[in-house]
Amino acid sequence: MAIQTPERPKTALKEPTKRSRWTRTGARPRPTNAFELYSWYFFRVSGILLLVFALTHLVVMHLINNVEVINYDFVRQRWASPLWRTFDLLLLFLALTHGMNGVRTLIYDYVQSKGWRVFNISVLYIVGIFFLLIGAQVIITFNPNLPSLPAK
Amino acid sequence: MQVTLKILRFDPEKDKKAHFKSYEIEADPLDRILDALNTVKWYKDGTLTFRRSCAHGVCGSDAMRINGRNRLACKELVGDIGKKITIEPMLGFRILKDLVVDMEPFFEKYRSIKPYLINYEDPPATERFQSAEDREIFDETTKCILCGACSGSCPPFWSNSEFIGPAAIVNAHRFIFDSRDQGSDERIAVLSQSEGVFRCRTVYNCTDACPREIPVTKAIEQIKRVMLYNR
Amino acid sequence: MYHKYDAVVVGAGGAGLMAALQLVGKANVAVITKLYPSRSHTGAAQGGICAALGNTEEDHWEWHMFDTVKGGDYLTDQDAAEVLARDAVERIIELEHMGLPFNRTPEGKIDQRRFGGHTRNYGEGPVRRACYAADRTGHMILQTLYQQGIKNKVTFFNEFHLMDLIINNGRCVGVTALDIKTGELHTFHSKTTIFATGGYGRCWQVTSNAHACSGDGTVTAYRAGVPLMDMEMYQFHPTGLYRIGILLSEAARGEGGILRNSEGERFCERYAPTLKDLAPRDMVSRFIYQEIREGRGVGPNKDYVLLHVDHLGKEVIDSKLPDITDFARTYLHVEPYHEGVPIQPTAHYAMGGIPTDIEGRVIIDEKGTVLPGFYAAGEVACVSVHGANRLGTNSLVDLVVFGRRAGQHAARFIKENDYEELPTTPEKRSNDLLRFVEGGAQSGRKESAATIRKEMQECMMTNVSVVRNEKQLLTAMKKLQELRERFTKVGLTDNSTKFNTEKLEVLELGSLLEMAEVTTKGALERKESRGAHYREDYTSRDDKKFLAHTLAYRSPEGSVKELRYKPVTLGRFEPKERKY
Fold this sequence. Notes:
The complex is a heterotrimer.
Chain A: H1 35-64, H2 72-78, H3 82-110, H4 114-141
Chain B: E1 2-9, E2 19-26, H1 33-44, E3 63-66, E4 69-72, H2 78-81, E5 84-88, E6 95-97, E7 100-101, H3 104-112, H4 132-137, H5 155-159, H6 166-176, H7 184-191, H8 205-209, H9 216-229
Parallel strand pairs in B: 1-5
Antiparallel strand pairs in B: 1-2, 3-4, 3-5, 6-7
Chain C: E1 2-10, H1 14-23, E2 29-33, E3 49-50, H2 61-71, H3 78-98, E4 112-120, E5 125-131, H4 137-151, E6 155-158, E7 160-168, E8 171-179, E9 184-195, H5 216-223, E10 228-229, E11 234-241, H6 251-254, E12 258-260, H7 268-271, H8 281-293, E13 305-308, H9 314-320, H10 322-332, E14 341-350, E15 354-355, E16 361-363, E17 370-376, E18 381-382, H11 394-416, H12 428-438, H13 449-463, E19 467-468, H14 470-487, H15 501-525, E20 534-535, H16 543-546, E21 548-554, E22 560-567
Parallel strand pairs in C: 1-2, 1-9, 2-6, 9-17, 15-18, 19-20
Antiparallel strand pairs in C: 3-5, 4-5, 7-8, 8-9, 10-21, 11-14, 12-13, 13-14, 16-17, 21-22
Helix pairs in contact in C: 1-4, 1-11, 2-3, 3-11, 5-15, 13-14, 13-15, 14-15
């Protein structure tokens, strides 16, 4: 999409401009399109949260417990606690949305044609949301009270 | 000293593809790259084409890629660059001829952010007052000479021809942070579009490329913050 | 290609943009520039723009007028100087309203500082009159005016090279210009034409001027039969970087910098005991010239002197003179904190040019006959407000004051007059010129433009610079005539049509050669010393014979046909000896 220069807002002449915080006398800006702003902001917040979540995940799943110990029973025990379920649900959500946001910006950087952009973004959202949904379904609907698998 | 200039050549009337051509010249270590280019043009190959005017870094005509970095040819000395100098036109711009690139889209983007003071009140009989501190806030971004070195060094600008680019954002900054200006919302409406300020990936190439030492990336981040804090 | 505009402005520097801004909304206007507007050489001005605002101390426009007249060694037309000093005040306020980010006083007003030659109470002592935006005042003026041009949707023809001025039935009816990108010739049919094309400093080897400053506008008018005024009055700025001529602003000396010769002596003290290093530009240039000539120059060739700021301390250098130190470091690898910066006088500003009246209308004889529809403003014009020596900052004042007046008068002219027809072959002279240049690709045309230019620049530097004498001027005339002869056989290796910069350089050389000759001829015939024109064989000012402007007319083959003299407009201030 080309850069559009919107005409001067008609209200500007009537309304005296408000003073803002960032300069003592400057006009207060009001962005019309907030999606890019919030996605940028979300990027930063989710990035910081992911750092905490992913590191905790790494420590719990790979350092304290090694791969040999992790089995169905281990998972069943963890997900018996709503705390861990919430933790994993959040990790899933943040990792996927953060990642999707990143891929979205890559598509904007490298795909110029409008049609291809729509196509790529659609594929991204469909795949992303699909994984988000089945991931969430597993975490939410998992029944920790099922008997454990018979040992081999 | 003996210097080899390897220059990317392209003649729209003859060539299908750009190609490198090398020139051996004798240069003083204190010669500017622009002097070296002139030596080639005047005494070796008159067809070499590049823009130049002031020759001391204030007009912004001769931004080009020198050994992989965007620089003004008139602000770099041969002795500082070395014996092997590769010169290409800036990336992210269409090549018109040799080192001359099409600046029209660049200026169109510059114009899109309304680069002029907007104030809807009638001016007073005297000057508009502004404190020295308020004046200081946007001092750095008033230095811009529109050479295009920042935009031409920006990876998102290379890959996305619609991205407004750092130069336009710097000039928006110059007015958004000017206490006399009342057009911030109009400019921010442009910059918050999908090809506006949020295509910036904070690569910092622009800050490195700026021949006027404007902290370009910092200016861009300040605009993003203003957009967030003032919602 | 044919275009029709009420007004065509040639040149998009300060004067051109200011003129164009007066016309938007009143007429349809096109601005032609051979660069992009933001690349114009106005942007290189550093120090400031003077106006008697009195923001920091008492000041009056009459004082400013006096300084301008005295600085110009009384060759200044006093009606013009009055307009300059009076209008300056309003223009500065107007620039501020347009958004120019001036430095501010603690109360928030436009800050002002001292500048060479600007005094209080008719020469009593220095006054704070220069409004400034850090050390890039010219840059900010250019940017601000260009921004206003964008706001007002001015039509720009960027990268168009001026070819010819078209005159029909005693009226100026437009110009032709070459589209550099396509190589196509365009004809602009107009009611009014405003030239704001700048100077011709590239005639000299060491110059502060841009490569683009090749006198295109001056030569075009000259070739069309308009005389050129006071061309021998060419200012050399004392402090150009050694060898390359980049300007170190007067601010360096204003802040306390001093000049020293090879013996470490502060030589300005000897020549100007009171003002010392801050004497006017023409004088300091002569002091330096004299030191070098007497063998007290510095360096292996003893051909420069040193500008010292090291005694001022790091803080002062960093806060007040950042650009200057930056230039010294970048281009000479000299560290101004600890050592002197090599400097030499550099060709800087043409006081002369196309003669105009105070409305910017071009005049074509000593009686002040106007060529209707043709205007000029800025360095290309000679109002004459700078007389024999321009004061620092007055060039920027000139741009905005007379750029505006030319635009305003043109707007009235457009309203009152209809289009005059174009002649039957408006493009003939341009095509002839282009065909001559393009003919350089043929065999037998072996002269190199670069060599001719180099020889011209060296000749002008040696013979027609700060100090002149008859012998040297005659040598220069002979050399320039020889070069003009060789130029008829100039070669061309690039025969492409698009963006052919080699072709442009040949065109520019053609204009520089003529400018060099007019300058030399004027200097040869002005047998006195006045302002920037110093003759060691006629060391005193001769008000009886030469209190007059030189008007140079061109012969068809390109040499100077005749010189006439136009009396100076006197007024308020009687010519006195110029002492500082």
